[in-house]
Amino acid sequence: MLSIAFDDLGLHRVIGGIELRNDGVRPCPGEAGDAPRGALRGERVHQSGEWQSEVVYAILDHEWRLRTS
User: Fold this and answer.
1) pLDDT per position as a tens digit, 7-65
2) Which H helix or E strand runs over 52?
3) Are the beta carbons of 14 and 8 closer than 8 angstroms?
4) All domains of the chain in start order, with CATH
5) pTM of the predicted model over 0.90
6) To bridge 51 with a disulfide, which of 18, 37, 40, 42 should be the other Cys (CB 3.0-4.6 Å)?
């Protein structure tokens, strides 16, 4: 997906969020070379009667190119 985003679509940055309580997927984004950029506590998605918090990850095009070259 990142190859499509940067190589085919020419995007500058890809951002993704992971719900804080979802420990099962949290290690995955770092494997792509991105880094946590911040946390949004209780302000993104209202689900199951409560506001969810998430960690925001992002990777820039030049970071992706360094990792894949």
Assistant:
1) 999 999 998 887 777 666 555 545 555 566 666 666 666 667 777 777 788 889 998 99
2) strand 50-60
3) no
4) 2-68 (3.40.630.30)
5) no
6) 42
